[in-house]
Amino acid sequence: MGYGYGRMMYGYGFDPMYFLVIIMGILCLIASHRVSSVYKKYERIRSMSGMTGAQVAAEILRRNGITDVMIQHVSGNLTDHYDPKAKVIRLSDATYNSPSVAAIGVAAHECGHVCQHYYGYVPLKIRTAIVPAANIGSKAGIPLIFLGMLVSLPPLITLGIWVFSLAVLFQLVTLPVEFDASHRALVMLEEYGILGYEEVKDSRKVLSAAAMTYVASAAAAVVQLLRLVLLNGRRRD
């Protein structure tokens, strides 16, 4: 009875790591809430230059001699991103026309990604190369694992774990890409005289809060993968 109960507790029923997964999910929510609250705080602080996010992006591209990247306005809040295939920086409602230190920091961050692309930053190349596989991993990994469990087919479970690991790899590679983009952004903002010293410190707080969302997401993905690997090992035992 003791062996059967233990197998149920750790193989199919109660799983101690499940609590860790829940904790990581909560941390992701906290990180997301923090970046929103920090942004709201610093979007009320107008930069001394008075430049908008779009103007800052244009200036940074000009300073780096990058002429083939467009700047577009996209709807939404904090939906800013750089599309390397289309060579377009898309700035959200909260960034495009705003002269705040928060908006300027975000716009410069996206320009940091452009510079990574333009100068051949290796981690960005790796992330771009694994995007198709990561998309498959995020969509098909978990379903494959559950299907394998449902039909009691261990090879299918193992395949699902490997497929899901591609999505986790993408999360991990994203970390140096995002941190480097923020570093480039802050250096350029100060070097080009777009923000003063204290304003750069404020922008750093916004970008640091945003970076923590990537850290939390990556940590949660790693924990989830580890949990799946351990569960699969217990099933085999």
Write structural notes for this entry.
With 237 residues, the chain is mainly alpha-helical. The chain has one domain. It is 76% helix and 5% strand. It has a three-stranded mixed sheet. Strand 2 and strand 3 form a beta hairpin. The longest helix is centred in the last third of the chain and has 40 residues. The N terminus is likely disordered. Pfam families: Zn_peptidase_2 (PF04298). Keywords: Membrane, Transmembrane, Transmembrane helix. It comes from Butyrivibrio hungatei. This is Peptidase.
What is the oligomeric state here?
A: single chain
Helix content: over 70%
Count every beta strand, where a strand is a DSSP E run of 2 or more residues: 3
**What is the distance, rounded to the nearest whole angstrom, between the alpha carbons of the first and last residues?**
17 Å
Question: Which features does this protein show?
Answer:
elongated; 8 helices; three-stranded mixed beta sheet
Question: What secondary-structure arrangement, pairings included, does this model have?
Answer:
Blueprint lengths: L1 H11 L3 H27 L10 H11 L6 E4 L7 E3 L4 E4 L1 H4 L4 H19 L2 H29 L3 H38 L5 H40 L1
Parallel strand pairs: 1-3
Antiparallel strand pairs: 2-3
How is this structure best summarized?
Helices cover about 75% and strands about 5% of the residues.
